[in-house]
Amino acid sequence: MSVTAPEPRRRRRLGAVAAASLLALTVSGCSGLGRTAVGPVTYTTDREAVVQVNSPSVRGCHRLAPAGARELENGTLVDIIVYPTRDCTGRGAAYVATRFSDVAAESGPPWRSYTFVH
């Protein structure tokens, strides 16, 4: 039994199939990456410290500084909901649309976490 090298056209076809398979694997691997909210979430703490988080993930609950935030600006392209709890649950949540800001009431608790609406 003799083994011969594949003809040039067949080699090109095998190369194209291999390249297409590799591209498909690469694209499917990247689809699992977490999406981010493009832009910053900026907030001010009780001590007047300004904190900016750039392009956070749109998934999950995001905690703010331990002392919480009195003012929060949503500079992302995705709406958010802010909560007075550390785990994005409970009453007293507020909806902050994209490119808007919200101020916690002086008599109420500060914002302690947020989640994206998607």
Largest sheet: 4 strands, antiparallel
User: What would you call the structural class?
Assistant: alpha+beta
Mean pLDDT: 81
Strand content: 25-35%
Strand order of the largest sheet: 2-1-4-7
State the share of residues found in helices, binned by percent: 10-25%
Give the end-to-end Cα distance, rounded to a whole number of Å.
62 Å
> What is the tally of beta strands?
8
Q: How would the global form be characterised? A: elongated
Task: List low-confidence stretches.
Answer: 20-32
Question: What is the gyration radius calculated from CA atoms?
Answer: 24 Å
The DSSP helix count reads: 1
Order of helices and strands: HEEEEEEEE
Describe this structure in words.
With 118 residues, the chain is α+β, with helices and mostly antiparallel strands. Helices cover 19% and strands 27% of the residues. A four-stranded antiparallel β-sheet has the order 2-1-4-7, with no helix packed on it. Strands 3-8-5-6 form a four-stranded antiparallel β-sheet, with no helix packed on it. About 11% of the residues have low confidence.
